């Protein structure tokens, strides 16, 4: 598991910093993808995972193009659209479209086939593809998506995912919580770890932040562990961030 190295900074908390320009990169013409962790042809032994967070891909798919039908099993797969419309089809009979403000989850479990394609003919679709190791294997595959109120993340952290079906957002088979926030310049808040022993991986969607006095910029990621809470301050206008609290042990 990753977390064997830290970088010196103003803070003494255990952390690992992934600058945007150090990510893996693949350009297939119809697909441009940046990989925070090892994926496909990008293999980096020092960037395999952060706890149960296995994949964080920042994808842009050209007009009318997409991923054809392909299989997955025993993985929790989350898609977060950032721009445009993404059309989903799967072997459970689901056909739907997700867009900015939606969250999609697939529990692959015993096995599922799906395809994801750009619904638009006039613009690229941009989305985050995130894989989480589940806390139980061979579950019955399931699919879900919800539409969130974007106003509920303005100068606050909006929960978008949890382990509990009754909570806000979608749920997955793992003790993980995701939040998104959109902040004014100078706005400060904190996030308290919900389950002892979990770590937090923060990914900057837009703008700049100071997280526990560590400066991070657009598309940077920082993983922090052995802490009960983190402090977050936006240092640019309309700064947006995704927080992923995950177990550190596989």
From TrEMBL:
Cofactor: Fe cation
InterPro entries in alphabetical order: Pirin (IPR012093), Pirin_N_dom (IPR003829), Quercetinase_C (IPR041602), RmlC-like_jellyroll (IPR014710), RmlC_Cupin_sf (IPR011051)
Span of domain Quercetin 2,3-dioxygenase C-terminal cupin: 160-246
Lineage: Bacteria, Pseudomonadati, Bacteroidota, Flavobacteriia, Flavobacteriales
Keywords linked to the UniProt accession: Iron, Metal-binding
Note on how the cofactor is bound: Binds 1 Fe cation per subunit.
A GO term, aspect molecular function: metal ion binding
Name of the featured protein: Pirin
Pfam families from the UniProt entry: Pirin, Pirin_C_2
Chain positions recorded as Fe cation binding sites: 70, 72, 114, 116
């Amino acid at each position: 598991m990753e977390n064997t190295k830290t970088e010196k900074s103003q803070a003494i908390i255990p952390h690992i910093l992934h600058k945007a320009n150090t990510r893996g990169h693949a350009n297939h013409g119809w697909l441009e993808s940046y990989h925070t962790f090892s994926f496909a042809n990008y293999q980096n032994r020092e960037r395999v995972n952060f706890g149960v967070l296995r994949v964080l891909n920042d994808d842009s798919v050209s007009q009318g193009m997409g991923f054809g039908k392909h299989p997955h099993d025993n993985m929790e797969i989350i898609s977060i659209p950032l721009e445009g419309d993404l059309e989903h089809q799967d072997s459970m009979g689901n056909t739907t479209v997700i867009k900015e403000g939606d969250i999609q989850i697939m529990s692959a479990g015993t096995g599922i086939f799906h395809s994801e394609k750009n619904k638009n003919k006039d613009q690229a679709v941009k989305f985050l593809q995130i894989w989480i190791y589940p806390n139980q294997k061979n579950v019955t595959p399931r699919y879900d998506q919800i539409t969130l109120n974007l106003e509920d993340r303005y100068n606050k952290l909006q929960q978008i995912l949890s382990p509990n079906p009754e909570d806000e957002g979608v749920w997955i088979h793992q003790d993980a919580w995701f939040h998104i926030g959109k902040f004014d310049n100078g706005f400060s808040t904190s996030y308290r770890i919900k389950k002892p022993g979990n770590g937090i991986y923060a990914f900057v969607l837009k703008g700049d932040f100071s997280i526990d006095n560590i400066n991070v910029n657009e598309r940077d990621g920082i993983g922090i562990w052995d802490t009960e809470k983190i402090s977050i301050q936006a240092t640019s206008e309309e700064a947006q961030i995704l927080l992923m609290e995950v177990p550190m042990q596989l």
